[in-house]
Design goal:
Layout lengths: L7 H20 L9 E7 L17 H8 L2 E7 L5 H10 L26 H7 L3 E7 L3 H6 L28 E5 L22 E7 L7 H10 L19 H30 L6 E7 L14 H4 L3 E4 L8 E8 L3 H8 L24 E5 L9 E5 L3 E6 L10 H7 L2 H8 L5 H4 L8 E5 L17 H18 L6 H5 L10 H10 L2
Parallel strand pairs: 1-5, 1-6, 2-8, 3-4, 3-5
Antiparallel strand pairs: 2-7, 6-7, 9-10, 10-11, 11-12
Helix pairs in contact: 6-7
């Protein structure tokens, strides 16, 4: 490059300095007292079912204490209804549909679209030591105690047969922990590779509260004198009141109490190592519990999740935040805390800023699950929830996992005997095209107002909001009926088969 101006030497020097500074800032080891550490505790399959959210039957002292020391969100939602698309939203700050990765573990995209980023790389570029946790033990031990290291991204997964629950490892380091010894959490192992003054970005995926934790949770709760009395449970009106349902609900709550112990270990380990005061802790869940009408569904029972953020000396203790919050907000919030640039392509907001106060709507997606095709979308405000089913001919529980792992056997039996209420039997039948719920009077999404005359205008308004968001975000619904040349998509239609047809007809 030739500079002809009389200012050329100065311009060249400025250019060199700017380039050097940018390169240095991207790769330098940041001192921990300049920026706080960050720990994400991501809990699989959990409703906001803790004491701090009003459940008096569970025993969650550690999580309740975390909430009392930080900020508890009362309107926090998942952006997807099953693990992999929800985890994808966590790590990208975007809706899974925006980046073309909405179908659960089906036809993964090789990489993120141009201009989109993964949180771990951005934190690494900001100078953070990035680390994931995994328990030392057998598979079931890992799933119940400590952490699983699960990232479950719908892109760049590597070979699916070798990596069923994780994408290619996106953290620089994997810390092997012993859940019986919290001294192994933030000391030794991979931590010896961290520069002394370097802040860390750590992630722990905890599955103790999932369905495989129900029975161990029940046993643990009984041994520790905190087991839920199933006769004290108020069975929701969308369930029949059966012994099976009371038993499973009690076990699910006991699993939550058991989960609290595992969360507590990470918090106690931070305290033990003197890290609590300079660590931002973010606790959230990926979607609703492993129960019928929760996981895999867009109702509030499936999309409303717990979210707590603690940042000593920066967040006032006992703060309650009633603004709309989403899993897509975790990534930009972390980047803001790290004092680094938030990509413009991220759709989430910094939850610790004023931006959420201006937010009117959040969205969530439901697509193919267990390899079986479906497509529905949700838009939610502080007052209403609207759900649009693009293929209402498909039942809510139209895939094998839903029938096998989520559906109550006693409910299925009563449905066959025609002994359920209209609300209870809805789960087993074809979906309506539209659903609208008044969240001020119906926080369980039970009374569908969409067909009522006085709500038709409001339903139309929310439909427009949803369709405009889809257009703006690039959310394209697969034209399944056209591809199959049918009036109604058959139940059990495979996602990958439809995608194959789509590409063949191009």
């Amino acid at each position: 490059m030739i500079f002809k101006s009389k200012y050329s030497p100065f311009l060249l020097l400025a250019f060199v300095c700017l380039f050097t500074c940018n390169t240095f800032n991207k790769n330098k080891k940041v001192k921990s007292n300049d920026r706080p550490n960050i720990l994400i505790l991501f809990l699989d399959d959990l409703d906001p079912n803790f004491g701090c959210y009003g459940n008096k039957l569970v025993h969650t002292p550690n999580i309740d204490k975390l909430a009392s020391e930080g900020m508890l969100f009362t309107r926090s939602y998942a952006a997807a209804t099953v693990c992999s698309p929800s985890h994808t939203t966590l790590f990208t700050g975007c809706y899974a549909s925006t980046i073309g990765a909405a179908n659960h573990r089906s036809s993964y995209i090789d990489k993120l679209p141009k201009g989109y980023h993964i949180l771990t790389e951005l934190m690494k570029d900001a100078g953070y030591f990035t680390v994931n946790f995994i328990s030392d033990g057998d598979l079931m031990y890992n799933k119940i105690y400590g952490a699983t290291a699960k990232t479950d991204l719908n892109f760049d997964r590597g070979k699916p047969e070798n990596n069923r629950e994780s994408g290619k490892e996106v953290f620089e380091h994997l810390q092997i922990i012993n859940p019986k010894d919290i001294a192994t959490y933030f000391k030794g192992g991979q931590w010896t590779k961290k520069d002394k003054e370097q802040p860390f970005f750590a992630y722990a995926n905890i599955e103790t509260g999932k369905k495989h934790g129900f029975i161990p949770g029940r046993i643990w709760a009984k041994e520790n004198g905190v087991a839920v009395d199933s006769t004290q449970i108020k069975v929701p009106s969308h369930y029949a009141d059966t012994d099976e349902i009371r038993s499973v609900l009690a076990a699910s709550m006991d699993a939550v109490s058991h989960l609290d112990v595992e969360v507590g270990k990470f918090l106690q380990a931070l305290e033990k190592e003197g890290l609590s005061e300079n660590t931002v802790v973010i606790l959230a869940s990926d979607h609703g519990a492993t129960l019928q009408r929760h996981k895999q569904q867009l109702w509030t029972t499936g999309t409303k999740v717990p979210m707590i953020i603690r940042w000593p000396n920066n967040i006032k203790k006992g703060t309650v935040n009633s603004e709309l919050a989403s899993i897509i907000d975790v990534a930009p919030t972390c980047l803001a805390v790290a004092k680094t640039t938030i990509p413009k392509t991220m759709e989430g907001l910094n939850l610790l800023s004023e931006a959420p106060k201006n937010r009117k709507y959040l969205f969530a997606t439901k697509d193919g699950m267990d390899g079986v095709f479906d497509c529905s979308r949700m838009v939610i405000s502080k007052d209403y929830q609207y759900i649009h089913h693009f293929f209402p001919e498909l039942a809510y529980n139209s895939n094998g996992y839903a029938k096998r792992a989520l559906t109550f056997k006693s409910m299925a039996k009563l449905y066959k005997e025609n002994k359920l209420t209209d609300l209870q039997k809805a789960y087993f039948e074809k979906k309506p095209k539209e659903e609208l719920y008044d969240l001020n009077t119906d926080d369980q999404s039970e009374e569908n107002l969409a067909s009522q005359e006085k709500f038709k205008k409001l339903t139309s308004n929310y439909r427009k909001v949803l369709f405009n968001w889809q257009k703006d975000s690039g959310d394209v619904v697969l034209k399944a009926r056209e591809l199959l040349n049918v009036k109604e998509v058959p139940e059990g239609t495979r996602v990958d088969n439809l995608l194959k047809l789509k590409y063949e007809k191009k």
